[in-house]
Amino acid sequence: MRPNAQRPRRVLVIEDEAALGSLVKANLESEGFHAALEGDGEAGLAAHAREAADLIVLDLSLPGMDGLEVLRTLRRRQDKVPVLILTARSGSDDRIQGLSYGADDYLAKPFAMLELTARIRAILRRAAPEEEGRRMARSGPYRIDYLHLSVHRGRTDTLLSLREFRLLEVLLAHPGRVHGRQDLVNLAWEADAHPTLRTVDKHINALRKKLGDSDENPAIQTLEREGYRWTLPVKW
Questions:
Q1: DSSP letter assigned to residue 175
Q2: Please, are residues 70 and 99 in contact by the beta-carbon 8 Å criterion?
Q3: How far apart are CA 9 and CA 30, in angstroms?
């Protein structure tokens, strides 16, 4: 059982588009989070005051008090709750402004739900790695060390690059699920990076080589027109 299984992490979504907010909330709940939804900034701040969130997903274009003012209010109160800005504003000025006010990450609409969930998990690990608990995983012959970005197999310890480890992390999060190349770009690269799909293949091949992965019984299976999947059960 994962260490945080006793207490689902609480994510507060502040989003005035009801349909989108409900979709995000439902997706987070399906991923094991405790999610709450508020439609404006003042209601969001009040909800956070009643029951502190572990992370806030914050839209910028809110009625009344906009997202930036919500963020400024939190930081003026010395509240260090992690904040992921979710907005249709894709300009770099808005992104820089949000991050300068203390946001932890920025995701522009439209977005993939898988990417949103992956970014939330990454922020929570950075904010409280002990509580998030995903420091070591076991899968087949491998022990994956999240703290040192390394993989142990038998007596061999292999250090992965950050990109290789991000790819491995995405695959391990959903063993058996096929991840298309574009999905891997969304989940394992920064929002402002634009690698080619061939670049994904090159990094996967480098990762497989470091893992000593065999073609006969691969841990990372290649499905030519679909993408890649992790074939082994994972224990945390």
A1: T
A2: no
A3: 13
Is the pTM higher than 0.85? Answer: no
Is the omega angle on the peptide bond into residue 195 within 30 degrees of 0, that is, cis? no
Tokens of 51: 């029951």
How far lies 118's CA from each of 107, 153, 189, 225, in Å?
Answer: 11, 26, 11, 24
122, 144: one domain: no
Domain that holds residue 168: 135-230
Residue 109 shares a structural domain with residue 197? no
Q: Tell me which amino acid residue 120 is.
A: I
Checking if the pLDDT of 131 tops 90, the result is no
Q: Are 164 and 199 in contact (CB under 8 A)?
A: no
pLDDT tens readout for residues 191-218? 667 899 999 999 999 999 999 998 889 9
CB 86 within 8 A of CB 116: yes
Q: 157-162: long-range contacts (C-beta < 8 A, 24 or more apart)?
A: 158/210, 158/211, 160/207, 160/210, 161/206
Tokens of 207: 């990762």
> Domains in the chain: how many in total?
2
Tokens for 115, please give them: 């990417």
Distance, CA of 83 to CA of 103 (rounded, Å)? 5
Chain segment 169-197, per-residue pLDDT in tens: 889 988 999 999 998 988 888 766 789 99
Strand partners, 139: 142
